[in-house]
């Protein structure tokens, strides 16, 4: 009897976890850099990729110095897959059909934070065709959504905008 109960329990927990890890964005043509908390995905053919990778890494470092990322302040452990995509890809409504475009009036985007159906992974998208100041501000903004997520604050726009503005001013970057 005990075995049966254990088996049922295993089934119940393993099926949702499996379904959750199916990637929504096709990354098969992209190169990767693993930085621990973030894995960066980028295209070698994107002429801005080197500059934007450096910029994202610097933004992440500035972001992590401005928020508390400890076991005590966070409620869950979530890694982020960061996609650095050119404008024609990030704004392709077919490639990016999993985003809820209607919710922001179907406007083109500089970045997006996507809570895929996974317990421990999220996807963050940034537009590498953006002017540098916009790219930096978007990085801060989307990273703040990740912070809201891992601290169980609930995702909301006003604090993310305030945070990115403050960090932009502090570093005189955007
Ligand atoms: Zn936002």
Count of individual beta strands:
5
Count of separate structural domains? 1
C-alpha Rg (nearest Å)? 18 Å
Query: Based on the structure given, which CATH architecture is correct?
Result: 3-Layer(aba) Sandwich
Classify the fold: give the CATH topology: Collagenase (Catalytic Domain)
- List segments where confidence is low: pLDDT < 50 over at least 5 consecutive residues: 1-19
Helix content: 40-55%
Structural class: alpha/beta
How far the N terminus sits from the C terminus, by CA atoms, comes to 63 Å
* Bound molecule kinds, no repeats: zinc ion
Globular, elongated, flat, extended or rod-shaped: what is the shape? globular
Strand content: 15-25%
Q: What is the residue-mean pLDDT, rounded to a whole number? A: 89
Describe the strand arrangement of the main beta sheet, using strand numbers.
1-2-3-5-4
| Biggest beta-sheet profile | 5 strands, mixed
Order of helices and strands: HEEHEHEEHH
Count of DSSP H/I helices: 5
**CATH top level class name:** Alpha Beta
Structural summary, described in words:
The protein has 174 residues and is α/β, with parallel strands linked by helices. It has one domain: Collagenase (Catalytic Domain). The chain has helices spanning 2-20, 49-66, 87-90, 132-150, 157-171; strands at residues 31-34, 38-42, 79-85, 111-114, 121-127. It has a five-stranded mixed sheet with strand order 1-2-3-5-4. Helix 2 (49-66) crosses helix 4 (132-150) and helix 4 packs across helix 5 (157-171). The longest helix has 19 residues, at 2-20. The N and C termini lie far apart (63 Å). The relative contact order is 0.15. Residues 1-19 have low confidence and may be disordered. The structure holds zinc ion (ZN). Residues 141, 145, 157, 160 line the site of zinc ion (ZN).
